[in-house]
Amino acid sequence: xxxxxxxxGPVTLSEEAFLTINCTYTATGYPSLFWYVQYPxxxxxxxxxxxxxxxxxxxxxxxxxxxxxxxSFHLEKGSVQVSDSAxxxxxxxxxxxxxxxxxFGTGTQLKVEL
Amino acid sequence: xxxxxxxPKYLFRKEGQNVTLSCEQNLNHDAMxxxxxxxxxxxxxxxxxxxxxxxxxxDIAEGYSVSREKKESFPLTVTSAQKNPTAFYLCAxxxxxxxxxxxxxxxxxxxxx
Lengths: 114, 113
Fold this sequence. Notes:
The structure holds two protein chains of two kinds. Chain A contains no helices and twelve strands. Chain A has strands spanning 3-6, 11-14, 19-21, 23-26, 32-38, 44-50, 56-59, 62-65, 75-77, 86-93, 102-104, 108-113. The relative contact order of chain A is 0.35. Chain A is globular, with a radius of gyration of 14 Å. The model of chain A has no long low-confidence stretch (mean pLDDT 92). In chain A, strands 2, 5, 6, 10, 11 and 12 form a six-stranded mixed beta sheet that branches. A four-stranded antiparallel beta sheet of chain A has the order 3-9-8-7, with no helix packed on it. In chain A, strands 1-4 form a two-stranded antiparallel sheet. In chain A, a hairpin with a 5-residue loop joins strand 5 and strand 6. Chain B has no helices and eleven strands. In chain B, strands 2, 4, 5, 6, 9, 10 and 11 form a seven-stranded mixed beta sheet that branches. The interface between A and B is medium-sized, with 22 and 25 residues.
């Protein structure tokens, strides 16, 4: 079945540091890929998405490129801020698997310090 | 403003009692979903509904029940058969258009005492 693997956290960075959160996936078809962000005590918000190989999703300074050859969708940001502290979830949706269900990774907590 | 509402934000119940969590959306979405979130385990799918009057079990449906009598509402009942109900519950919806993007509510934190 489909699966998503994320690097374990927490990841602790100083403000303005470079961020990478690794995400790899296994899917039977041609999935769409997503990054969601969850701030403390809240629901999930879509951060960015990509639907096909080599697509780059971007939003609020975050980027991720759909790499089919390495089955990866790593999240990057050039300069993090304290306000980026949250839990980040990588997810996929594989239409070949039927329906519109999302498969999530376990989440990576990011802490940004001054 | 369109969106998904969940109520209440915090819910406390005694062990052995059934409890119903509310989820309402005004996005005119056909599909709705319930997830459970536990620390370190990400989100796990409980039930989902692709259309009114129809729903399917997700990966961890045991001890839960749902109904979908109206397009905008998808309540989740946590029954006494659920062995470990304390968790954060998230409702989501998905429209016909788009790229399988799901929109999430703010969540309900259920604590069973």
